[in-house]
Write a structure and sequence with these properties.
The chain has a nine-stranded mixed beta sheet, sandwiched between helices. By secondary structure, the chain is α/β, with parallel strands linked by helices. Helix 4 (131-136) links the parallel strand 3 (113-117) and strand 4. It is globular. The protein has eleven helices and nine strands.
Length: 339
């Protein structure tokens, strides 16, 4: 068999596997929708409880489990204000830190502390490609697993359940322990939880928002549409989520924070081929953000952004102190391939 025929055969097999996964997913969704159709006619409250459980369950998948750390860091734990145990991993800068400032945890901070915040269903290793370049630039790097994610303990709803405010609370707890953030590099829902933490007073010099989610309420509406939730069930679900968050749901929206609070400068990185968060979301967010910049990529999807060398380089340049920045961040960078 020639190389060309072998490649075609592999492509056919992959296409068949993807088609089979899509059929299984469609069948599961049909069963869930049928269950809700029956349940909410009998008891909208029970339907809302089931919908809440599904909404608060982080997804799983190879992209979210990927680990791009080149070396292991020092492990520690912090406890959030709600009592969750959060596993933290930190790396000191490569450069000598003998005469560097000392952070809250007693470590040399070098050019400052950069935090890595994963998204919904993710874990700290996903952002591992940023660690060594940031260390080489003189930064101390701190990453963590949010409650009910990775190696951390369960959140207030129990194992494999969490909420957006809980992720924001985890970032705030880690920063309190390890020192003020020169920058936070966040991915997917981690971008919205980082903005929520900033809204609640988290100090940060700069933000990098990769594959950013801005409209959390829109995501909730899409979830309700997908499940075929009735109007009473939706209202009960929103009420329960608001109670869990301890605030009105519109406050979780990134755009609301931009209208009502001061925010640090931000670099928004988004790919035109992102299938999870459409590119116009990131482009609109960058346009609305005071002191916002947009880095557009092609063909990297939602996850490959996190390990693309050019994206990593642009992010490191952006978070560097102004006196050492090497120039403006590029606006568009083509890339081959897909997510």
């Amino acid at each position: 068999m020639t190389a060309s025929r072998a490649e075609k055969s592999t492509t056919v097999r992959l296409d068949r596997r993807r088609a089979a996964r899509r059929r299984k997913a469609a069948a599961r969704l049909a069963l869930v929708r049928a269950r809700f159709a029956v349940l909410q006619t009998v008891s909208p409250r029970r339907a809302a409880r089931l919908a809440l459980d599904l909404w608060c369950t982080p997804p799983d998948g190879a992209g979210r489990r990927r680990d791009d750390r080149a070396v292991a860091g020092a492990l520690s734990t912090v406890t959030t204000s709600s009592g969750a145990r959060v596993v933290v991993e930190s790396w000191d800068p490569h450069a000598s830190a003998d005469d560097a400032p000392v952070g809250a945890a007693g470590h040399g901070t070098g050019a400052g502390v950069v935090y890595l915040a994963h998204g919904w269903g993710g874990r700290r290793g996903q952002l591992g490609a940023f660690v060594e370049p940031l260390r080489a630039a003189g930064h101390r790097v701190v990453a963590f697993d949010a409650p009910s994610h990775g190696d951390s303990g369960p959140g207030r709803l129990g194992p494999r359940r969490s909420t957006m405010p809980e992720l924001a609370d985890a970032l705030a707890a880690v920063v309190r322990e390890h020192g003020e953030a020169t920058a936070v590099v966040a991915h997917s829902l981690g971008t919205a939880t980082t903005v929520l933490a900033v809204r609640d007073g988290l100090p940060a010099g700069r933000l990098v928002l990769v594959a950013a989610i801005a409209d959390v309420l829109g995501q909730l509406d899409g979830f309700a549409d997908l499940l075929g939730l009735s109007r009473p069930t939706r209202a009960l679900l929103q009420s329960r989520l608001s109670d869990l968050a301890g605030r009105p749901l519109p406050e979780l929206d990134v755009r609301d924070t931009l209208r009502t609070h001061r925010v640090p400068p931000a670099l928004v990185v988004h790919d035109r081929a992102d299938k999870e968060v459409p590119y116009p979301v990131g482009a609109a967010l960058a346009a609305a953000w005071p002191e916002g910049e947009l880095l557009t990529t092609e063909g990297l999807g939602h996850h490959r952004l996190l390990r693309d060398p050019d994206v990593v380089r642009a992010v490191v340049e952006y978070v560097a102190p102004p006196v050492t920045r090497s120039g403006p961040t590029p606006a568009v960078r083509p890339a081959a391939g897909s997510r």
